[in-house]
Amino acid sequence: MTDPVTLKKLPLFPLNTVLFPGMVLPLHIFEPRYRLMIGRCIQQQQPFGVVLIREGQEVGGPADPHDIGTTAFITHSERQPDGRINVHSVGYQRFRIRRLEQREPYLVGMVEDFPVEAEQDNSIPGLVMAIQPTLKQYLSGLVEAAGLDVGVEATPDDGLALAYFVAITMPIPVDEKQQILETPGLADMLNLEYRMLRRELALLGHMIRQDDAVNEQPDMLFSAN
After folding, report:
1. What's the pTM?
2. Pair 54, 88 in one domain
3. pLDDT tens readout for residues 21-45
4. What is the rounded CA–CA span in Å between residue 54 and residue 69?
5. Is 225 a member of any domain?
6. What's the burial of 16, exposed, middle or buried (CB within 10 Å: 0-12/13-18/19+)?
7. Is residue 46 exposed (0-12), middle (13-18) or buried (19+ Cβ within 10 Å)?
8. pLDDT higher for 121 or 215?
9. Distant-in-sequence, close-in-space partners of 123: CB < 8 Å, separation ≥ 6
10. How many C-beta atoms surround the C-beta of residue 134 within 10 A?
């Protein structure tokens, strides 16, 4: 028999953001319901859950969240005189919502841990070796496109740390970030990210080549009329 699933009560913060473990998330809390929620989390030194909104909105009305999210621990908070709260939080671990409760002014979920499956897959070391240089090339391209003169830092060697680093770094749509977050196993997550990285690198290269072509022929910007 399998062990019964342990559910935990977790206050939820639906956002138009996907949070990953290890990711820093600053928040400005002004709605009364979330001021109450965050105030309780600070007082009780408890985490809250960040979930991407499936339907609804961040401010004012109700929001229907995706089932998979990430717990966030508050590392610093500053309460304003009018009751607003500025917080810095960091993602900790994935969870899955099993059911929702609306007994509080804010959303509460009964959740279970959803750790990345740490299967012994022989493809993981090869994926790490393939992703690292592709990621460095992509980040260097972003730096070049932005016109910055900075070096690209070393990328993680650990497979899971690399997977989260890629997910946090790539400026892709939130639905694709959610797809990464929901992927159960590490090998599948790295495979998905490698495909996305190659696509983004190709798009970035095309954009840089177009910019170079325009810079080399500035007269093309003006009409002959």
Report:
1. 0.87
2. yes
3. 999 999 999 999 999 999 999 999 9
4. 12
5. no
6. exposed
7. middle
8. 121
9. 187, 191
10. 17
Name the residue type at position 119: E
Q: Where are the alpha helices (DSSP H) in the chain?
A: 32-44, 123-146, 159-169, 174-182, 186-216
Q: Report the relative pairing of strands 48-56 and 8-15 from DSSP bridges.
A: parallel
Joined tokens for residue 59? 């401010």
Closest CA to 196 of 169, 159, 223, 160: 169
Q: Which domain holds residue 206?
A: 123-218
In a domain, 1, yes or no: no
Residues 64/53, Cβ–Cβ less than 8 Å? yes
Could you tell me which of 193, 196, 180, 190 has the C-alpha nearest to residue 122?
Answer: 190
Two tokens, residue 210 = 């177009």
Tell me whether residue 223 is in a domain.
Answer: no
Non-local CB neighbours of 221 within 8 Å, separated by 6+ positions: 214
Using an 8 Å Cβ cutoff, are 70 and 35 in contact?
A: no
Residue 96 in contact with residue 49, Cβ under 8 Å? no
Q: How far apart are the first and last CA of the chain?
A: 80
